[in-house]
Structure formats: structure tokens, C-alpha cells
Amino acid sequence: MTTILATDFWTSIMPNVVANKDVFIQSTWETIYMTLVSGIIAGILGIIIGIALVVTAPGGILANRTTYWILDKLVNIFRSIPFIILLAVIAPFTRLLVGTSIGTTAALVPLTIGTAPFYARQVQNALVDVDRGIIEAAEAVGASPMQIIFRVYLREALPDLIRTSVVTVISLIGLTAMAGAIGGGGLGNTAISIGYDRFENDITIMAMIIILAIVFIIQILGDLWARKTDHR
Amino acid sequence: MAANAPIIDLKGIDVTFKEADRTVRAVKNVDLEVAKGDIYGIVGYSGAGKSTLVRVINQLQRQTSGKVTVSGQNMGALKGKALRQARTKIGMIFQHFNLMNERTIGDNVMFPLLLGSKLSRHDKQAKVDELLDLVGLSEKKNDYPAQLSGGQKQRVAIARALANDPEILISDEATSALDPKTTSSILDLLKNLNEKLGLTVVLITHEMQAVKSICNKVAVMQSGEIVERGDLLTIFSKPTQQLTKEFIETSSQIDAALANVVAQPSIQHLQANERLVVLSYAGASTDDPLIAQLYEQFKVTPNILFGNVEILQNTPVGNLGLVLSGEGDAVDKALAYVKEQGVTVRQINVAEYQAELARKAAEADTNAEGEA
């Protein structure tokens, strides 16, 4: 136990990590910050778009061919753009929105735009799985479209929405690793610009370990929560 | 609304579905009147348009043309909030129960009360308890649907359907996914609710057995049309349409018994003065000692081959397979007398009947091969 905690031990196996401890602490926060903020915004957007896709789809409770067609195509287009290109392409829009196109906060815009359509699709899939008969039963007792959305769709799909959100957050963490390309910092940036570029392999490995730890924690908590809410 | 006006009045209902390459006319110019307190059975094979027709009642399906009046209200003219309000007075239960999996039994029953009911929180809880008690599931209140059997789930669905005190309950194949024993307990419950709460029930099914056990009126549907309708007793004792006869047969098994009988050598070689007949009768005619009369008046000897008597709406309905033998035209005279008594007589020519059975069997085989 004492060996593991001893600075000497770490210095011997990961000399550069120990030397750059502050960098790690900061880049871990950057990763968490980017994931959290863009995750929340993309989450709200994704849920709204996902619901809209389900209810406006043909046969949906608010079927509307035009709205569905537009949303469907938008989601497809934004999902198809490789993230690294999206970062560059939307730079003017980012500047317009947050005043700068460089830095951690600037990275929030492309992260959100890159994640929202992906999440919208996942939300759509989760909601579509709610049995059409359950929706019909709700309509039969006089539920309004809003009541059906909030009290039936979101409630019935909750376990799937949780699972889907976990997948989305994990993929979002993956995207934050690319944020370094526009000066967004984060663990991905540390791994590449310090670890890889300076041949300090222990830094790259440590960045990976921290990201893996974050992913595992989210995965485990998400699974537990989903299982707890699932009564099917 | 006039005192004796039907609670559900469908006039000239047409429902057409437009698909990519064709239009399907699921319901064709159907009129249907359901009186308050009826348990109205709508029978038909799947695809006959029964489900579409009843969905017009609560406007889950809008009619392409025709007029829907429920409790004096023109349903077709209702939209939005007014339509949702009207729907609360029409309960509906489904083949697959359609309970919300992520809510407890109590919360499922509570659901309709969360949508705008003016009851206080306490009164809502009391209502849920009362409904669960009514369907006999009080102790399951905190369970989830996944923990219940099919019959229990349907009971919860019934409790939910009754939460807003509807006047009408639509049952869409509600017993079709249940075993026979559970089916009869659910049907008993519906009958009970009909008597206790004055609930009008519209029951769609493909099982004549279900209709037979609780309905007072029946309509038979085929390809979007009602081909025959009437009160239960008339339909069962004097069906006029082939389809109706088929449905009745599935529940009485008379043809199955007959098929067995004609396979017997003694029946295949009937003497000239012997006749194979099936007598069908309903109500009062069963009280007379008919069989005894045959011998006393006409010296015709009845040999009973098979028979069954069922009680439909407190009236006995019977079928009797006999071989009658008598001197000269005694058998004909006896049958004429029997007809006078209001009994339906079906004379079976054994050779023809067997040929028909063989033809039907061949037909069924061809169909089965076509599907395979």
C-alpha cells in the first residue's frame, strides 16, 4: 500500500505524469466541463427533436409530413458530417454565438451540434419502442398530445432513455478528445499535444486511463439507474 | 336525447384507408344502434373491420363518411378538448391490455384521473382503491404489470377503463389472448359490471363462445359489412347467413358431431323409411314433450344420436340429432308437425353430406398449401 502511494513509485513508472500533474487536473476538468455542459444542452435539444420526430411521423399523435421530413433530413445531414470537419465548418457560427471560436467554451458549440442529432435519433428509437397500443389506450381515456408525451412516452421509455443517454455521453466524451483541434483543451488534447508529440508515452496512457475511468463510472451508474427504473 | 334513443347510433359509416398503391374500404356503409344497457357482440374473422368500426365510436378512427352519435352527441363534429372530454365517457379495453409497464397497477388505474379530473388527491386514491376492489385486485396495487397474469392485467385494464365512470365500455378482443377459464371470468366480470353499473358494452370478438355467454345482441361482420344482426336468441336459433352458421357451429360443435355420425356404417345404410334429421329449437318449444309426441301421434320411433342444450339469456337452445323411422309417410307428417311447433328441421342426406364434407376438406387443404 505504501509503495503505491509513494511519489517515488509513480515517478519511477510515470515520470512525465507526475511532472505534469497540474496539467492533468486541469484537462480532466476541461473534459468534464465540456461533457457536462454540451451534454445538457444537446440532451435537451435531442429530446425535443426526438419527441418531435416521433409525434410528427406518419401515424404519430401529431402527424405532420413536412415537419417530420425537415427534421429527419436535418438530423441525417448533421449526423453525417465528421466531427473534426464540423469543428471547422461551424467556426463562424460559434464566434457569433459565444464570441470566440477558440477555447474550451468555443468547443461547446460544435460538441452540442455534433451530439444533439445523434441523441435525437436515439431518443426517437427509444420512444418508437413504446407500444402503439399503450398510446392508443391513453388516447382512449382522453389524454392530450402533451399528456401523452410527458406522462406516457417519456415515462414508459425512461429505462431506454437512460441507456441511450449513457451511450450518448460516452460518445460525447470521445468527441471532446477532438476539441483540442480548436484549442478546447481536455484529456484528448493532453494525450496528443503533450504525450504523443513529445514522445512522453506515460502521459498518453494516463490520459487514456482517466477517460476510461470516467466512461466506466458513467456506464455503471447508468446501468444501475436504468435497471432500477425498468419494470418490464 | 329521447329516453329510448340508442346510446350509440352509427349511421352510414364508411372508413377508407389510403395506402401507397390502393385504397382499402375497411367499413362499408354500416348502421349500428346500441341501446343503453346492451351487451352488443360484434363477431367476425380478423380483417372483417370490427376493430375499425368500434374505434369510430370513440373517434380513435375518424369515419370517412357517416354520422356517429354517442349519448346524443355528434362525435364527428368534436375536436380537441371537447373530443377528449367525450372520450372519458367511453372506456376501452384491448386484446393486449395496453397497460403502462413502468407504472404500478394503482398508478395505471390512476392514470385517467391525472388528466384533468376535478377530484381531490384523496378522492382519486379512494377511487383507485374502489376500482381495484371492484375487479378483485386490491392486493396488487403496488405491483407492476409484468408481475401479473394475463387475466389480472385485463382486470386492471378494466379498472382503468372505468376510472372516469364511463357509460360505455368497448371491448376489442379483450379475451382473445386469454385461456378459456380466464376468458369466462373476465366475461363474467363484464356481465356483472353491465348489471351493477348499467354499463353498455360493445364486445368485439372472433369467438362465438364469448358472445354466447354474455351478449344480448349480436352483429356478424364480414368484409366491412354487417351481414346479419339481431338478438342473441334469434341469431342462434334461426341464423340465415352462412357465416353466422359457421360461427355458431364453432361454438356448438353440431357439425363435428354430425360428421362423426355420418361416418357410422349403420347411418350410411339407412332404410327407406328412416331419416337423419337435426332439430334445432329455442325457448318454449323445448318444454313440450316433443319426442314423446312423435311416437304417440305418428308412431315414429326417434333414435337419439347426439344432442346439446344451452342456456342463452335464460332461454334453453337445443340441437338434437335423430334418426326417425316410421311407416309410410309417418315421418314426413311428424316433421311437418315438429315444424309447426317452431322447431327448425334440417334433413340430412347422408351421401350428399359426406360428399360435401370431402369437398370442404379438400378445399381446406388447398388453402393451407396456398398459405404455406
UniProtKB/TrEMBL annotation, chain A:
Its main location: membrane. Residues 28-222 form the ABC transmembrane type-1 domain. The chain crosses the membrane at residues 31-57, 77-98, 161-183, 203-226. It is found in: Cell membrane. One of its GO terms (biological process) is D-methionine transmembrane transport. It is a multi-pass membrane protein. Keywords: Cell membrane, Membrane, Transmembrane, Transmembrane helix, Transport. Pfam families: BPD_transp_1. GO terms for cellular component: plasma membrane. The keyword DNA damage does not apply. Belongs to the binding-protein-dependent transport system permease family. CysTW subfamily. This is ABC-type metal ion transport system, permease component. It comes from Furfurilactobacillus rossiae DSM 15814.
Automatic annotation (TrEMBL), chain B:
One of its GO terms (molecular function) is ATP binding. It comes from the Bacteria. Keywords: Amino-acid transport, ATP-binding, Cell membrane, Membrane, Nucleotide-binding, Translocase, Transport. The keyword Nucleotide-binding applies. It holds the Pfam family ABC_tran. CDD domains: ABC_MetN_methionine_transporter (cd03258). It comes from Furfurilactobacillus rossiae DSM 15814. SUPFAM superfamilies: ACT-like (SSF55021), P-loop containing nucleoside triphosphate hydrolases (SSF52540). SMART domains: AAA (SM00382), NIL (SM00930). Residues 10-248 form the ABC transporter domain. This is ABC-type metal ion transport system, ATPase component. GO terms for biological process: amino acid transport.
